[in-house]
Structure to design on (106 residues):
């Protein structure tokens, strides 16, 4: 896998976390800053995990004509990559949400 995907994924997660915390500040001003940051940081990883689960279900439901080892390998690879990107999205979203939340507090 190319490292460019990791850098672009992290940058997009930072941007999405930043944008969502700004949106939540306007929509839910009664929420605490910490709650807004956590909700903003968890949006993209949740979407990533849902997409990973859909991909695993699609692989599991296909007819592979006797190649069960390849099916298991594909499921394991998709789970590892999806989980890695979900973790990366959570960290990036948390960074973006925290930076924007601190800037808004000043």
């Amino acid at each position: 896998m190319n490292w460019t995907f990791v850098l672009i994924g992290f940058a997009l997660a930072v941007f999405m976390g930043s944008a969502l915390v700004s949106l939540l500040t306007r929509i839910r001003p009664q929420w605490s800053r910490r709650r807004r940051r956590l909700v903003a940081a968890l949006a993209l990883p949740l979407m990533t995990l849902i997409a990973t689960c859909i991909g695993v279900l699609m692989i599991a439901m296909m007819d592979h004509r006797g190649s069960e080892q390849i099916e298991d390998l594909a499921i394991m690879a998709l789970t590892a990559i999806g989980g890695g990107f979900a973790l990366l999205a959570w960290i990036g979203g948390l960074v973006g949400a925290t930076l924007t939340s601190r800037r808004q507090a000043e």
